[in-house]
Amino acid sequence: GHLHNSEAFNYGVETWEAYKRGGLSKDLVEEQRKVQEADLLIFQFPLFWFNMPAILKGWMDRVWVQGFAYDLSKSYDGGLLQDKLSLFSFTTGGSKEKYAIRGDIRYLLWPMQHGIMHFCGVKVLEPHICYAPENVSEEKRKEMLTAWTQRLKTLWKEEPIDCSPEWYFK
Amino acid sequence: GHLHNSEAFNYGVETWEAYKRGGLSKDLVEEQRKVQEADLLIFQFPLFWFNMPAILKGWMDRVWVQGFAYDLSKSYDGGLLQDKLSLFSFTTGGSKEKYAIRGDIRYLLWPMQHGIMHFCGVKVLEPHICYAPENVSEEKRKEMLTAWTQRLKTLWKEEPIDCSPEWYFK
Questions:
Q1: For the residues of B81-117, what is the DSSP string, one character each?
Q2: Is B21 helix (H, G, I), strand (E, B) or coil?
Q3: Which EC number(s) are documented for this chain (chains A, B) (predicted)?
Q4: CB contact under 8 A, A170 and B103
Q5: Confidence category of residue A78, pLDDT binned at 50, 70, 90
Q6: CB of B110 within 8 A of CB of B161?
Q7: What pLDDT, on the 0 to 100 scale, is given for residue B115?
Q8: Is this complex's ipTM strictly greater than 0.85?
């Protein structure tokens, strides 16, 4: 459709306005419908550069537009996607020990859990991390799958975690 | 070209092997050449969801392959892209005050500065952050541009910062 402001193009404002007048492209509307209907969002991906792969990041950038996922006056516990749960489940290249040295896991979770989910009001379940599946035995890999299968069975009984604990705020 | 291992496809291994035998696609080789020739890499972008926009994240995911940017035995201070400098220069949607409440800026810089640059041996200059340019006066925006112009003039005299300070490691 036409631009809301053709004098000064602002991507964020244009998608916000397009969302409000139902002018987003069909694939985005469809993805937003899926998010809206979901009670639980599981993000499963291989960790690339301490974050999600670009294709998933692009899904966040394009689908979670202002008006749908957040509003500057409605964020964090008052966010637009309240009453939903999310879970980040990812595989890493490095071992658990390597990530533990610098507390990397806590810091890399912050932008995703706090910066995206919490910002939009989505509650967060304990992340599910499979460390270095490429470098462990076939048996270990099967154990990882079994553990995930087991966890899924009782996922609904889990309580959200505090993804923005006090120690971050110093 | 042909797959290194067609029995079990592993994206990371395939790009690594392709890099070694010169089998990466031309656009990647060209981007790697630019990185190789550069003394200073300036990443300029609008902050999207506490990280770089997907299109830039995709550039990192695709261009900075194992063998070129890092090697599991050669990382951090011994990384493959030593003797290069980097600088993250970005604009935000929210105000400085909003980001300051939770120390968000420190945490969102970690994956980019420590997780990518430091991991590959690239030194990091003080980030350059323009807060909420959309919401400030035209005069303030001009000041932001002037400050950046001024900084660029003496950038070569700046010393790298410690992007992985001790307080992270608790």
A1: TTT-EEEEEEE-SS-HHHHHHTTHHHHHHIIIIIIII
A2: coil
A3: 1.10.5.1
A4: yes
A5: confident
A6: no
A7: 92
A8: yes
| Cα–Cα dist A60/A69, whole Å | 10
**Cα separation, B54 vs A11, whole angstroms:** 14
The per-residue pLDDT for B99 is 84
- If you search the block for the tokens 């209907």, which residue do you land on? A37
A97: contact with B, CB 8 A cutoff: no
Mean pLDDT by 10 residues, chain B (170 residues): 90 94 96 98 97 98 96 87 97 89 82 94 97 95 98 97 75
DSSP state of B125: P
Check if A22 contacts B (Cβ < 8 Å): no
CA distance B77 to B66: 16
Which pLDDT band holds residue A3 (cuts at 50, 70, 90)? Answer: very high
Inter-chain residue contact B110 with A115, CB threshold 8 Å: no
Q: pTM of the prediction?
A: 0.94
- Residue entry with tokens 């957040």: A70
Produce one character per residue of A132-164: b if its CB has 16 or more CB atoms within 10 Å, e if not: beeeeeeeeeeebeeeeeeeeeeeeeeeeeebb
Which residues 68-87 in chain A show a CB within 8 A of chain B? Answer: 72
DSSP bridge pairs for B32: none
**From the CA of B154, how many Å to the nearest CA of chain A?**
30
Closest chain A residue to the Cα of B99, Cα to Cα: A115
Q: Does B22 touch chain A (CB under 8 A)?
A: no
Q: Which residues contact A36 (CB under 8 A, 6 or more apart)?
A: none
